[in-house]
Write a structure and sequence with these properties.
The chain is α/β, with parallel strands linked by helices. Helix content is 30%, strand content 22%. Helix 4 packs parallel to helix 5, helix 5 packs antiparallel against helix 9 and helix 6 packs across helix 7. It binds nicotinamide-adenine-dinucleotide. Nicotinamide-adenine-dinucleotide binds next to loops.
Amino acid sequence: MTTRRLGIGFIGTGNISSAYLRAITGHEAMAGFPVLDIKGLADMRPEASQARAAEFGLKAMGIDEMLGSSDIQLVVNLTIPRAHVEVGLKALAAGKHVYSEKPLGITYAEGRKLLDAANKAGLRIGSAPDTFLGGSHQQARAVVDSGALGQLVGGTGFFQCPGHEAWHPDPAFYYDIGGGPVLDMGPYYITDLVNLLGPVARVSAMASRLRNQRTVLSEPKKGQVIDVVVDTHATASLGFANGAIVQVAFSFDVPAHKHVPLELYGTEASLIVPDPNFFGGDVELRKRGKGEDWVKVPVTQPYADGNYRSLGVADMASGILDNRPHRANGDLALHVLEVMEAIAAASAQGRTIDIKTPVARPEPLATSLKDGRI
Ligand SMILES: NC(=O)c1ccc[n+]([C@@H]2O[C@H](COP(=O)([O-])OP(=O)(O)OC[C@H]3O[C@@H](n4cnc5c(N)ncnc54)[C@H](O)[C@@H]3O)[C@@H](O)[C@H]2O)c1
């Protein structure tokens, strides 16, 4: 048993909260994250937090009670995108560190506001996604850092699906301001690309909205018509500061496709990086030259064998307790948000947009693991 623990509380106990709670409390084969001491769950719908609390044997509480609790040092904000910054600012004002689901905010300006407020208060911001900390993505990072790819040329990234109204119980937010495939799925891909390649320097893009309304296909809101106020199909070229150019596509309008999620190209080899929406998956390398073939890179890094959503929170809590930087941090999330906003702006304005927020690649996870785990 560890005594090194940070008190945390959750605000927002909808769909994704169960993945966090399962990973932290060690369901299935996962070891759990004992550094995270869950003191309570809150939601603007008390029935949602009460139900989740009962499911996991935890305590439901009001939002104000949570913010007033001296046992809680960090708030995990799992509300919908439009509420991320408002809820985050409240938690900062109450003296809590904040780890938010993605995107950090729905505009760069509000993300900046959150970071400025945290810096002023001497508190930390963390943000999903944390899948780039998964074993397979850290393995891919080790391949890139080894120089095996040679000079980095570029790559591709594809997230394309028919739309989340097929499965999400309450999908309207995906088509509202702050929704759309870029803000929803872009964080996984762009964060992983920054982890692998470093900062983005410039963006060009085109985006479209084919339908102004969509019909919910999933229960319990099946048949309800949703207004669509965001683009639902976007393609972009991301120019990285290291010279690599990566083409990406994010879409809620594609019935099916066969592109792999992420590929990187270097002058000496190409690398397949698994789906950045997950922690594990196959990493494959093919060296340049006749007779070479794709080979699987053995994944020896931890956290590749399960759904470890909350790994970024655990790394942040450990960072706070050990007084070291955490990886899924606000600067990284703000850089990614600026890139995503630039995709919309580049499309609307028909020009290439420069990215200004500086960002450092987070340290490989292995450098701060104790006993091989957080
Ligand atoms: N569902 C997924 O598979 C998934 C995966 C990864 C990330 N996410 C992200 O997680 C976040 C939440 O998604 P979800 O699918 O759990 O949504 P959801 O709608 O199922 O749950 C959101 C919860 O937040 C609560 N809430 C909303 N505004 C609030 C406020 N101002 N104060 C307090 N509570 C508030 C709602 O009552 C609801 O219970 C989103 O940012 C989403 O992008 C979702």
